[in-house]
Design goal:
Elements (H helix, E strand, L loop, with lengths): L6 H54 L20 H7 L9 E6 L14 H8 L6 E3 L6 E3 L2 E6 L5 E6 L13 H11 L7 H7 L2 E6 L4 E6 L6 H6 L6 H4 L6 H5 L11 E2 L12 E6 L13 E6 L3 H9 L5 E3 L2 H8 L2 H6 E6 L6 E6 L2 E2 L2 E2 L5 H10 L2 H8 L4 E3 L22 H10 L20 E7 L3 H15 L4 E7 L1 H10 L4 E6 L8 H4 L17 H11 L4 H18 L2 E3 L1 E3 L1 E6 L7 E2 L2 E2 L21
Parallel strand pairs: 1-10, 17-18, 17-19
Antiparallel strand pairs: 2-3, 4-5, 5-7, 6-7, 8-9, 9-10, 11-22, 12-22, 13-19, 13-20, 14-15, 16-21, 23-24
Helix pairs in contact: 12-14, 18-19
Amino acid sequence: MQKRSSAGGWWLYLLVMLVIVLVLLTMYQIDRQWTKLAEVQATLSEQARDIRELRTAITSGAIRQQAAGGETAPGVTTAFQRAYAMTQLPDYAQGDWNVNAFGNNLKTITPLVSTDAYASEVQGYIQESLIARNPDTLEWEGLIAKSWQVSDDGLTITFQLRDGVTFSDGAPLTTDDVVFTFQFIMTEAIQAPRERAYYEKIKDVKANGKNEVVFTYKEPYFEALSLAGGMPIMPKHFYGPYLQKPQEFNESKGLLLGSGPYRLPDPKGWTPDKGNVELVRNERYWGDVQPSYNRILWTIIQNDNARLTTYRNGKIDDYQARPVEYQQLKNDPQIMGKSQNFEYMPPVAGYSYIGWNQERNGKPTRFADPRVRQAMSYLTDVDRIIKDVFLGYAEAAVSPFSNTSKQHDAALQPWRFNLEKAQELLKAAGYEDRNGDGVLEGKDGQPFTFRLTYFGDNEDTKRMVLLLKDLYARAGVKMEPFPQEWPVMLEALNKKDFDAITLGWTSGIETDIYQMFHSSQAKTDGDNFISYKSPALDKLIDQARATVDEAARMPLWRQAEHIMYEDQPYTFLMRRQNLTFIDKRIHNLQMTKLGLNAGSLPVETFVPAAMQKYTQP
């Protein structure tokens, strides 16, 4: 027989439930308090160590005097001159956050293991090199190194390190860390094939006492100073244990510690599922000028429209506009009321391309035939892509070398759309429509179909790929668009598991193409992931890299460019202009010979006190 509950029974039940909730809340608060107490104890321990080191430094006279108000006294090193000039502006203030967005998920931010430009941007705030390039003169200047000498034969470079440089955990940076970084990179068990491809030119790196380190090269190399001086220094005490467990390092997601102006809150704790990358100020930063922002934050927003909405709402500080929306945004009162906008072609602008995979599963593909690659370049109407998709905010790329570079032969013109020539080349390579279905077939009867892999969340790339599908179909080539997520694309590159892929490379003042086009790099995890092999190009690359004299080197690069121009290992697409909107709260934005200084290091931008909105340190 069913029974009804009495009112008193319900009250007793509610009372018991209330007690349980209160007990759980109490336990949660206690747990939080223990966590907070552990953090406080760790901070106090670090502060005690810093105070001991400070006393020692004062006793030894190693502390440099500073002017009143925290300003660096006269004698600021060259690398910090621009940042120091910023601190003298009347509205300069420290504090606030610099918040930006990445358009792709990051697979890892561990140095060497990571391969994308986003991870490299994060690492730049944390790890530093011996020297840096001046954005006004483009000359090298000391950062961790205070001076250096190059031997007459160019094979030996000796660096003298500054005193007082420390990593963000307080450990001193010494020549042992420089030597260790080279040895760590060159350890075969460490997943760093790209870096080893360059550093293998170095015979050895040796410490000559606490503050002097000597790089000795096996042979002359035109970028010897850049290679040695630009190596990001990895702390031995932090990364050294992974020599005994390299697989753990290779599979890691966020092992990142350095001497730079910012640090990870937990140098071992970042994972992709966090959804963002957040850096905090390095309170121990050794530089002449302390960084402006309390925090640097990147959120992951893969959708273009969502990224614009986030910028419009003031949740991020900059927005890289798509050409299709740029003019509309310039006429948008709300956007222009909050923004500074910059429209420019960086002198080191990278290039986009379509890479034709020439070998798959150990067997040559149809793209191993240069006539097929040439035909595909004739069918890829770059002028129309620039006009219809990028609305003129780009220039056609001829090769890996910028049109303004000394490496480029101005006589070479971009490949233009030519359906007839493409059809002739394809026919010569054995492709005809043998069954009348509108699709070419090879001599083996297999149709000319392929997948073009691309990053699926980029709307402009999506529009370009759909345009190319129609253009290729006019010649009887069936292209299947194959959109992928960023980590999946990187995995496909490493395994060479694709037909063709469209991506981009960054560029430098002078571009070394060894990494992408030398035959020796057509290996697993190498950056010649299209397996392009040309003995003639290899020879020129080797000669150019070994030629220190610029006047003698440039003709070699131009000969190499001619080979790539004829072979078309990539179909070179374009270099795009930067169409950038940046919140007006960000001050001291300047154009330099390296482009806009928004991401320059040392940090050169700030938010005046009256405009700051993030109060958390």
